[in-house]
Write a structure and sequence with these properties.
The structure holds two protein chains of two kinds. Chain A is mainly α. Chain A has one domain. Chain A has a three-stranded antiparallel sheet. In chain A, helix 6 runs antiparallel to helix 7 and helix 6 runs parallel beside helix 8. In chain B, helix 1 packs antiparallel against helix 2. By secondary structure, chain B is mostly helical. At the A-B interface, helix 1, helix 7 and helix 8 of A face helix 2 of B.
């Protein structure tokens, strides 16, 4: 399946091909282009079009699905979709209410729901066999096509950055700039060791978005990597190795479903917890 | 020579990551069982927290496995 129609010299080349994004960007010599030959000349203005496209598409699916679920509400005979939407909302609501106790903020619930479902949908793309969509893209002339948005650090770190901005925003809004600074400067050791405090708390603050984004990326990247390695078993034109590959795919996919849901859940929980910490006003 | 060093590096990444995660998950699961035995009515609450922390502990070695396999097969 993997080698058919394609020519990969080595396994490394196959893996590299599957881990390369479709980049469009601005080059000095050629203007805006999607040609992979110029990918290393694109500077700041380069976009991973496949990751962006898939994440926006999945976001649209999320909105459309939930919108359809609540468009015809019924108390007597709720449709299956309505039950599903209610289940998701209740699950998120329960988690938010148990973790976000320090203040009232109507933004947290919808954001937590969005994060959970969106990240889960993006993770779920990992279960599509690794060669289907890239070879379909190749058939219409696109050289590189990476399907799972969360295996792109730009997407996960981008989401983590959004959470980070919200943390800063609410810290300053709730506690004031002075209170936020006081929290950073006077916390572990009292005010006479202010530089040490600033370094410690600054690292603490910066580690939050970094670990949030990298955790999701790392898990999904590792999972995708293992899927690709198992897919390599199918290259050899041997029936027994092929069957082994199919079996391993199934096993790893079954195990991976747990990780996909868990990582989406953890991303949501940590988002809520970080924002709850940003809303806390009492002195430690 | 360099190729074999890559394999050594990958095996260290995967192996030490597995050791750390094994200790972490062992402590975590043990404490969960202790807590569940003391207060069985808290099991649903504890299970949610268990999975959250399990995901946190599990993430680092999984990242290590991914990087290790990348080093072994793709570099």
């Amino acid at each position: 399946m993997a080698a058919k129609g394609n020519t990969y010299e080595t396994t490394g080349e196959y893996i590299q091909h599957h881990l390369t994004n479709l980049v469009c960007g601005k080059t000095d010599a050629h203007g805006w282009t999607c040609d992979p030959h110029y990918a290393d000349q694109m500077g700041f203005w380069s976009f991973h079009v496949d990751s962006l496209g898939w994440s926006i598409f999945l976001g649209a699916i999320f909105i459309g699905l939930f919108r359809a679920g609540v468009s015809r509400l019924s108390n007597e005979a709720p449709s299956g979709l309505q039950n599903f939407v209610e289940m998701c909302v209740e699950f998120v609501n329960e988690n938010v209410q148990s973790m976000f106790t320090s203040a009232k903020n109507p933004l947290i619930g919808p954001m937590a729901l969005t994060v959970l479902v969106w990240v889960f949908l993006m993770n779920l793309m990992d279960l599509i066999p690794v060669d289907y969509l890239p070879s379909a893209a190749k058939a219409v002339g696109i050289e590189y096509f990476k399907v799972v948005p969360t295996t792109d650090p730009n997407i996960t770190l981008g989401m983590a950055l959004a959470v980070f901005i919200l943390i800063i925003f609410y810290s300053i809004k709730i506690k004031g700039a002075k209170g936020f600074f006081a929290e950073l400067a006077f916390h572990p050791f009292g005010k006479y060791l202010m530089p040490v405090n600033l370094i410690l708390e600054g690292v603490n603050l910066l580690a939050k978005p970094l670990s949030l984004g990298l955790r999701l990326f790392g898990n999904l990247y590792a999972g995708e990597m293992i899927f690709i390695l198992i897919a390599l078993l199918l290259v050899f034109n041997s029936i027994s190795l092929g069957l082994l590959g199919v079996g391993l795919h199934l096993l790893w996919a079954l195990f991976h479903i747990l990780i996909l849901g868990l990582q989406a859940f953890i991303f949501m929980v940590l988002t809520i917890v970080y924002l709850a910490m940003a809303h806390e006003t009492e002195d430690h | 020579m360099e190729q074999s060093l890559l394999f050594v590096a990958a095996s260290i990444i995967i192996g030490l990551g597995a050791v750390g995660a094994a200790i972490g998950v062992g402590v975590l699961g043990g404490k969960f069982l202790e807590g569940a035995a003391r207060q069985p009515e808290l099991i649903p609450l504890l299970r949610t927290q268990l999975f959250v922390v399990l995901g946190l502990v599990d993430a680092v070695p999984m990242i290590g496995v991914g990087l290790g396999l990348y080093i072994m097969f793709a570099v």
